[in-house]
Amino acid sequence: QQELVRSARCRHGAPCRWGSQFNVPPSAQFVARPVGVCSMMKLPMQASAEGLDAAFIGVPLDTGTSNRPGARFGPRQIRAESVMVRRYNASTRAAPFESLQVADIGDVNVNLYNLPDSCRLIRESYQKIVASGCVPLTLGGDHTITYPILQVVAEKHGPVGLVHVDAHTDTGDRALGEKIYHGTPFRRCVEEGLLDCSRVVQIGIRGSSYDPDPYKYCRDQGFRVVPAEECWRKSLVPLMGEVRTQMGDKPVYISFDIDGLDPAYAPGTGTPEIAGLTPVQALEIIRGCKGLNIVGCDLVEVAPMYDVSGNTALLGANLLFEMLCVLPGVKTR
Amino acid sequence: QQELVRSARCRHGAPCRWGSQFNVPPSAQFVARPVGVCSMMKLPMQASAEGLDAAFIGVPLDTGTSNRPGARFGPRQIRAESVMVRRYNASTRAAPFESLQVADIGDVNVNLYNLPDSCRLIRESYQKIVASGCVPLTLGGDHTITYPILQVVAEKHGPVGLVHVDAHTDTGDRALGEKIYHGTPFRRCVEEGLLDCSRVVQIGIRGSSYDPDPYKYCRDQGFRVVPAEECWRKSLVPLMGEVRTQMGDKPVYISFDIDGLDPAYAPGTGTPEIAGLTPVQALEIIRGCKGLNIVGCDLVEVAPMYDVSGNTALLGANLLFEMLCVLPGVKTR
Amino acid sequence: QQELVRSARCRHGAPCRWGSQFNVPPSAQFVARPVGVCSMMKLPMQASAEGLDAAFIGVPLDTGTSNRPGARFGPRQIRAESVMVRRYNASTRAAPFESLQVADIGDVNVNLYNLPDSCRLIRESYQKIVASGCVPLTLGGDHTITYPILQVVAEKHGPVGLVHVDAHTDTGDRALGEKIYHGTPFRRCVEEGLLDCSRVVQIGIRGSSYDPDPYKYCRDQGFRVVPAEECWRKSLVPLMGEVRTQMGDKPVYISFDIDGLDPAYAPGTGTPEIAGLTPVQALEIIRGCKGLNIVGCDLVEVAPMYDVSGNTALLGANLLFEMLCVLPGVKTR
Amino acid sequence: QQELVRSARCRHGAPCRWGSQFNVPPSAQFVARPVGVCSMMKLPMQASAEGLDAAFIGVPLDTGTSNRPGARFGPRQIRAESVMVRRYNASTRAAPFESLQVADIGDVNVNLYNLPDSCRLIRESYQKIVASGCVPLTLGGDHTITYPILQVVAEKHGPVGLVHVDAHTDTGDRALGEKIYHGTPFRRCVEEGLLDCSRVVQIGIRGSSYDPDPYKYCRDQGFRVVPAEECWRKSLVPLMGEVRTQMGDKPVYISFDIDGLDPAYAPGTGTPEIAGLTPVQALEIIRGCKGLNIVGCDLVEVAPMYDVSGNTALLGANLLFEMLCVLPGVKTR
Amino acid sequence: QQELVRSARCRHGAPCRWGSQFNVPPSAQFVARPVGVCSMMKLPMQASAEGLDAAFIGVPLDTGTSNRPGARFGPRQIRAESVMVRRYNASTRAAPFESLQVADIGDVNVNLYNLPDSCRLIRESYQKIVASGCVPLTLGGDHTITYPILQVVAEKHGPVGLVHVDAHTDTGDRALGEKIYHGTPFRRCVEEGLLDCSRVVQIGIRGSSYDPDPYKYCRDQGFRVVPAEECWRKSLVPLMGEVRTQMGDKPVYISFDIDGLDPAYAPGTGTPEIAGLTPVQALEIIRGCKGLNIVGCDLVEVAPMYDVSGNTALLGANLLFEMLCVLPGVKTR
Amino acid sequence: QQELVRSARCRHGAPCRWGSQFNVPPSAQFVARPVGVCSMMKLPMQASAEGLDAAFIGVPLDTGTSNRPGARFGPRQIRAESVMVRRYNASTRAAPFESLQVADIGDVNVNLYNLPDSCRLIRESYQKIVASGCVPLTLGGDHTITYPILQVVAEKHGPVGLVHVDAHTDTGDRALGEKIYHGTPFRRCVEEGLLDCSRVVQIGIRGSSYDPDPYKYCRDQGFRVVPAEECWRKSLVPLMGEVRTQMGDKPVYISFDIDGLDPAYAPGTGTPEIAGLTPVQALEIIRGCKGLNIVGCDLVEVAPMYDVSGNTALLGANLLFEMLCVLPGVKTR
Fold first, then answer.
1. I need a surface site. Which of C204, E44, E221, F141 has the fewest CB within 10 A?
2. Domain B45-325 sits in CATH 3.40.800.10
3. How far apart are CA C66 and CA D239, in angstroms?
4. Does CATH place domain F39-325 in 3.40.800.10?
5. In this predicted complex, what is the ipTM?
6. Residues in chain A within 8 Å Cβ distance of C80
């Protein structure tokens, strides 16, 4: 009963550390799952990244979507479903909330009607976050958002390595006359020198194409492209060994488009492609990043309206937690 | 059996007039409802408005949406559900397909990533349509699109009267820093002199507001604002008598936002407001426009993903048919 | 642009008063609707009712539900959809955020597995809220929760008058052997003397019954029962005039079960009954309470899973806002 | 506790009369609503109509559907949602389970692949039911099924009066070359002399048409056609007074197509038409039949897949209960 | 035709054995799939387990659910979707309906508002079933129900072996202060000596945890815990060989939580965890139990509202049929 | 911009070849995905197969469905979701639109109320298509339709080899007394000598059965039956090597029932069976047909209402594109 009262006290975003020096998500043993204004994992919310080692932040933008919109509600739904995620990683024994100070710092305010201006707003918000030394874990939003985020990340860390999980390379040049939308972020990053191109891997790529050789651009830049076909029915543990070698100890960014997974697992997304990766492989990829010098992560393209069950968002919430678990400094127990 | 063959021949968009001088939608007595690539009412499709008295045209844009997106799929779903609409208006005895040459001329190609450019594309498409003397019946799309359409319409007809059904006045000045989105089209129209402000009526307006006196701007321009409260439980036949007097015989445009209706009837829309109009009142409004010099119509803001039944789109299809039935020159039988 | 920055600063629950002495919900003109961790109307969250005139509070419990469960997610979804509600009441000119200090104080932690213990937890939470002089506006939750809330309210104010909108009288004695579930709260309240029985009105009652004379108990207590049949197709403005007389100037509580409305308007609820009230009548009832000495309000039984559109929750959010607008001390503009 | 055991004993379809001479639906006060293999109102099931005054029977056929199929699952879903219906009619004080012996006698086995053969199967089943003197209350199924049912009913009672609620007259001659589908039952009935044409009323008719004068056939037969337009915003109590006079004391059949109601109330149906009747009017129609010599009833065209909430089926269950309540011999309390 | 009549006669739950000494589910070749009041596989219903070798029984309880409720409707939906399951197991050649007398004996009446009392009601019902020598195949309901069932089973058979498929070990001690909910049944069973702990295997366990070593309790009791990670991409045939050895010929109970499967296959459940088992593995587990001395089975946690397709319930129905097929005494053909 | 205009010109079904001699689907780089009246891949529509090497054609029939109907809307939804499919096959490098003249020739008009007559209508339509030398790629519709299609195909090519992917063999003799429905097409084909029985392979077969040895009929005819069990967790590349040998260079027809796949990937179908094939295996099967003398293909049983996401239809659209890519004469780049 004592504990019930204690958890009740934690519900409003006030520091909630359960006797620890770090913020800790409340347990469903003490706070009922449906209870609470949904921050990510019901972590305390704070207005800036000040004092944080890592922060969850939402970017509810979908103006860059080419087919089904709705990713603007990705952050809201991922937070809602994150009530199922608990503090320890039972598989890897990672204990992020005994290692890092983590909070939910809310959403970037975006300009739904103007993509370049949204990029500016994202950039300005992330400059403050990254400046404070905090690692951003982003809840998207469509994939456009990774472009301004990487502008900020590279500003601090120099050109970064990239672990990019996706059905699409997102290296188009333009569409409908525009250079900024969710099909082009990584070409823009290449052009601006934000990526260390020899340390880029794209995993899960597939689908029909406008070009007979659609991966040429990527390979010409030095990216490693791992089509879904090379992943089918395989463990990706060996691949990730190679990726760790490729990445070395220089800064790495993880950009995870939920459509990298097969639509059976992630129906709630806007541009699904058949015959994709499995959640098991997603875990192998993210857990395989342990030891890398990760400086930022995102999980994008969750469009909840196409998945009435909420399970695509639940998957997103779990994958974000797994990313948290492989950040530098996270201890195991 | 003869007729089954005949209808089979009509399925591909080739002229399909059933012995009439006009295009005629096929009957479900001869062509099964699920059959056919869905143009509006399964009318023949043609590439331009050439030779048409009226044309259905889609504008699948939702980049101007402030809350739930999805109206980009409005035209597709309205066409799909229009298989339920038959050629005669049993209530008014209107026989549009014995009076006018009507076709579906497809969709305007929009720039999903750039609202001003979409406006340009809409404007260019409509200039050709309107130039040919054809009355456009537009399947939206979010309400942003009415602005470029009215630019074209006013270019030909001068400032027009407006019968505007909506939950919102859509006369905001800007949002998120932008002057073009679905909350501002009619202020832009006023500023550009596209509206004959003394001949503007806005029906069904309601909802909470950012301003204590939210209709002031409209009334200052000379608009007649008819809040939903004034419509509750009433026939709108008397109102429409007054509206016909207000409009006179000068050109009138009908802009019908599906969220003018109560969300019970039209759940598939992005910015619903409670306590709205009924479909009965919608019919009274549109039928009450008979006799006016209508030069264009639109039905906007159908976002099908929020209505699994398809019935919001069905409602939209019926209301578009009703608009066709009150166009000048439509005979009754 | 200045304002965009300002709103960005408001997103984390820090006091956000826009230059006012009171908390003010952010405008979608400055903060995009999908942005933000959803508190009610995106109001600031705070840990206690301290300093507040009125507070939104959630009680995410549905263990008392007899048919379809899901009301535990009512508070979450009502908050999510409340992004459509703006600061002024355009119809009544009420300006609650220029009159009262209002915040969202989160959820009561409930015991999903034990109804009497949940009642205890609710009671304990509300004692603090009510003690501070704050008027609670509750987001339910099934109707069971009104019983412990009224225990606390009557403890402070003595037996209260009750404006009860519902399809059911909720005055059953027991079900499945239990005295506490969502069909019995008002019988429990009568037994404990929490209601001023001559000042109780139940509006919208209908449906088949286990008893040939199902309203006898209520009328025997002195309640006024207004069956839905007496409301059909009528304005409830005259009724509310009588209700105001009945209530006088003594304390009144408003308990609004969303199933009082017809399931067409509120499909997302657990025990729907056909042929119910309309949202127009709901507004007439609530607005008709202006001038009463309202000491608390609740909106219960929103079970979002049965309404994929989210519109039942949107309706709930609007009705809660309307209740806020009729609280004592709310000025008009 | 005693009662819990008693209800447990009733769950399997064994006679369950609660001390009464008649079958009585169990109360949710004693049997939890989700409990039980769903017969209509959880009434006992029996293999024939033997000994019954009235019987619920399902006809799960939708092969006659012209647009959206799914009414084959109408009976299953109506039974499932009927757990909300209780034994007394609180509005009319009807007590059918103190007046008549009622049971659920299951479904007619239909031939999904052959409409004429399904008609034969229905005919054969109903001959036994009607021969035993039992009044059938049918759960459809698409409207095709009323044709073979009326063949049987008229065989016993001679040409019957008909209270027909629907959006469509269902008096087409043929479609896709076929004379039997859900658009033709009442023309077939006329041709076979099953209807007493001067005692036929069709209420709620509306929608676009293939003919400029679509009601001519009906009126030529002597039917009274009451278009939806004549019902809008009106009480149908006066109409039903006239209908009772029209029907006199000769046998009457009630055929209620759920699409007679507006799609807001009944989204789960295959050929919806906008601007229809309300549930309030549906109650007025059915309750207005009290005193007539009703020899059979059906409720058709519930297609549950188009209404995720289950509420169309709930509406159907309630309307079937209301029909039961107006059968000859039902007492009030 | 003869057969159509014969099946029609079988529809009401009367003994229906098709010339066999055993009950046999009707074939869709003779009875249309949508036909019939849905018992499990349309088997005859009977009021007690008298004379049965095995019985399907529902326990529609979800008061023990910690996240999304709805499993109270599991039995209803599993029965509805079981119309797809036919009498023979084409893969294993099992012919349960030529080997055992099987029926559907309806649902246990539960107390939705009181978990301990529901446990009592379940216990009392199962005592009668198990006493009669019948093997219960339970349609859940949330996992709480396995606790009282095992009390009864162990009362008769002594401590049982357990094949437990699940995402969670369900060996928590308490939550929200309660010892009985769906996270604790197997700890309660251990405490009461209902399990032969060296013969317990838990398969598919995964997900984040409140404890750094969440399987310690289980392993301390002697359970074999097989995390999902050990199952990924593997045949479970070898594992089941080991399990058969572990179980020996002493009594075994199978408890299958549908959330053991990946949410892609079973979205309709309340506490899903990513990266779970596949239906192929589920079949390998159940078929791998052939030869064991199975004394009871359950399939729990199907919450249909989260899977609009009905396919989670269909999966549940098939898995229950597969359990029936491995019961002692089932012959192959 | 030039290109935007060009694509705008292509939107109405007029020849649209982008400078190529062949029809080419427009690119989402130039035409926004939501734009256009949905033909398959937005290809030009034409009224006959004249001049085409291959044609997409819909057969919107589901009267042959034994469980959940809805496949009548398969063609409409497959076309709608095909906006995601692009012109090149990135995996196989197939370039069908540089090799063949392809168009969408609309739907066959079917008789929804009469299966034999629908077969006649299909036969008559396909006779014209096949006579012109065009390879039909059919969008179903339920599996009944393959019977009349194969009548026409065999009329031209003699008995054909068959690559049949399905959960069911569809070789039943009759159901509900009928010889024509979706469970019998291949028995009818055998009886009429339309199949070269030694060149028939059925892949993915599974599920419970009405017969203890359900594959006997098939094997007696000489079919190769590959149960799903033999496919689990395996690459089907080796199998397809054997199949190519089996098929030789004589004519082959591909009939792909979407329920061959596991319901996790294809929930939108009427008679799902658990533990089926994966999309990866579907691709291996179809790509493994490269080199065969394919004379026709179909993709049947997509029933969109059971998959709110649209992803089953998307899967169907992709598989149809893959079939196009393996037609004789398709070059790679």
1. E221
2. yes
3. 38
4. yes
5. 0.95
6. 76, 80
